[in-house]
Design goal:
This protein has about 200 residues and is of the alpha/beta class. The protein has seven helices and nine strands; from the N terminus they run βββαβαβαβαββααβα. The chain has one domain: Spore Coat Polysaccharide Biosynthesis Protein SpsA, Chain A (Alpha-Beta Complex). Strand 7 and strand 8 form a beta hairpin.
Length: about 200
């Protein structure tokens, strides 16, 4: 069974004021860290979707040798980036059986957590294994191939959350605790580095 991971990294980082994908994180960058975690998981393939400042960001992540695709319509929102990534994976000769979608701006997400999601999928715990956000669920999440068409057709800022909500009866939502915090502002960056230091020590 082939599992592919899509890392969404196409946004403009408007609230950060500079590409957050390239912010220092550990011994690499925010996006570099996400690629490392995805590659260290049991997924078979990792695809990065870039958009804003794609040329600059791609040069910085080349040492990780990721597969990269560019969403030229990144301004239209997260849904389009998901669709772009899924369509690329489905154009390959060996298509995946499931796709795990994650964000580049959740640096506390680890390969161990990604493997927890993948393990639940292999066990048949649900057709969608997702992450809990209070009363809602979202990514990181893995989707069985029966949902690939729905993922391809996502538009605008409608990410995977609505699709997960629609199929909640066949989904399993995991609690990742503090790991789900994302990074949008300079204040978030400081806060997450503090959390990282706490849990690394």
């Amino acid at each position: 069974m082939k599992i592919a991971t899509i890392i969404l990294a196409a946004g403009s980082s408007s609230r950060m004021g500079k590409p957050k994908q390239l912010l220092p994180w550990g011994n690499t960058t925010l996006l570099g860290h996400s690629i490392q975690q995805a590659k260290n998981s049991s997924a078979d393939e990792v695809l990065v979707v870039l958009g804003a400042q794609a040329d600059l960001i791609k040069k910085k992540v080349d040492p990780f040798n990721p597969e990269v695709i560019i969403n030229k319509d990144w301004q239209k929102g997260l849904g389009g980036s998901i669709g772009t990534g899924v369509s690329h994976l489905l154009s390959q000769e060996q298509q995946p059986d499931a796709i795990l979608i994650m964000l580049a701006d959740q640096p506390l997400i680890t390969s161990a957590y990604l493997d927890e999601i993948i393990t639940h999928y292999h066990k048949g715990s649900g057709d969608i294994i997702c992450t809990e956000y209070g009363s809602k669920s979202g990514v990181p999440a893995i989707f069985d191939k029966k949902y690939f068409s729905d993922l391809q057709n996502l538009e605008g800022d409608n990410g995977a959350g609505k699709l997960i909500a629609k199929h909640h009866k066949t989904s399993l939502s995991l609690n990742a605790g503090y790991k789900v915090k994302d990074l949008d502002t300079p204040e978030d960056y400081i806060s997450l580095k503090t959390i990282k230091t706490k849990y690394d020590s």
